[in-house]
UniProtKB/TrEMBL annotation:
Catalytically driven reaction(s): (R)-malate + NAD(+) = pyruvate + CO2 + NADH
TM ranges: none
The name this protein goes by in its record: D-malate dehydrogenase (decarboxylating)
Taxon lineage: Bacteria, Pseudomonadati, Pseudomonadota, Gammaproteobacteria, Oceanospirillales
Protein family membership: Belongs to the isocitrate and isopropylmalate dehydrogenases family.
SUPFAM superfamilies in the cross-refs: Isocitrate/Isopropylmalate dehydrogenase-like
Organism: Kushneria pakistanensis
Keywords: Manganese, Metal-binding, NAD, Oxidoreductase
Stretches assigned to the Isopropylmalate dehydrogenase-like domain: 4-352
UniProt-listed SMART domains: Iso_dh
EC assignment: 1.1.1.83
InterPro entries in UniProt: ICDH/IPMDH, IsoCit/isopropylmalate_DH_CS, IsoPropMal-DH-like_dom, TTC_DH
EC supergroup of this enzyme: oxidoreductase
Amino acid sequence: MSHNIAVIPGDGIGNEVMPEGIRALEAAAHRFSLDLNFTEFDFASCDYHERHGKMMPDDWRDQLGGMDAIFFGAVGMPDRVPDHISLWGSLLQFRRAFDQYVNLRPCKLMPGIKSPLAGRAPGDIDFYVVRENTEGEYSSVGGKMFEGTDREVVIQDTVMTRTGIDRVLKFAFELAMTRPRKKLTSATKSNGISITMPYWDERVVEMARGYPDINVDKFHIDILTANFVLHPDWFDVVVASNLFGDILSDLGPACTGTIGVAPSANINPEGHFPSLFEPVHGSAPDIFGKGIANPIGQIWSAAMMLEHLGHMDAGKAVVEAIERVLAAGPGDAPLTPDLGGRGTTGELGEVIAEAIKNG
Ligand code: NAD
Ligand code: IPM
Ligand code: MN
């Protein structure tokens, strides 16, 4: 079976890590006899914005909607286009228009990587953040009033719907059912955010009724961030609203050494629309052009895409290749500087692709 994959490198290091993601996919396709057809798009980038005055062409939905998956790099060059314009004009549109309501972000301490948390070894940190991805704090409801006066007011409402919460909770509970520990933690803030968050908690209690085998707990987001650092071994599946999930999914990977390895899957579980696979990190303007960006977040996202497309064996082989190369350590593998090595993006991508081919 062939798969049509939209490739959108975007901005900054998105352009440097994307070729390594493709190289890994091509290696997996070769080994597992997969037929992957890539179509590259130059929109959803600040370059495109500079040429056209907008982030995407008007028919972007038609161009992408029929694809089997979208493989995405990163977007944003805040010195050239304000972030809220570039992001609301691209990535956040994809998530909404294609109803990618689950943002699945694994967080795992890999062999060979030193955690910044003292005494933590692989196995101590191995959980998923399941982030609500289409509503919540990321809403376009609100506005500015009395602009330019000293009575200026800005309002942005949080929007939570029963359907929106229940569907992401269901995904998280189902995921927890597949895990040996069967544990689910809900991120809340129902002590301070007094309408939406108590409602979130209510829906968690209601959903938990259908999953008596799952051990459910909850923490307010402030102490939850502390517990990520102090007790990362407590967590298995962590479900969170859009903003809380965003924060937790940078903190979690930072506890595993570097956000450069973290992948994500923006999923439309029903398969009505293409799902989108991208690293958690952004376009990293501070290191763009130096050739030192870690390509593993992009490559691991490729593995999640292969699994989503039904090729579990190929996805697993890509993750195993990453683990083997990391386990070799900075002395033997060309790891990038964020991993304590002196390798380049291309060198690390190449050894991982070789490891995928050789199995
Ligand atoms: P960032 O993730 O781009 O960078 C944060 C820090 O992590 C930087 O010091 C960077 O050098 C480092 N880093 C990130 N990825 C790395 C990698 N692969 N290897 C090594 N180091 C890496 O976050 P930021 O600086 O807040 O944002 C920069 C731009 O990216 C902004 O425009 C922001 O809006 C955008 N952004 C986009 C996405 C996305 O497309 N999904 C995600 C986050 C941020
Ligand atoms: C992410 C990013 C985006 C988000 C930004 C760039 C809008 O941080 O994918 O985590 O907040 O979702
Ligand atoms: Mn983020």
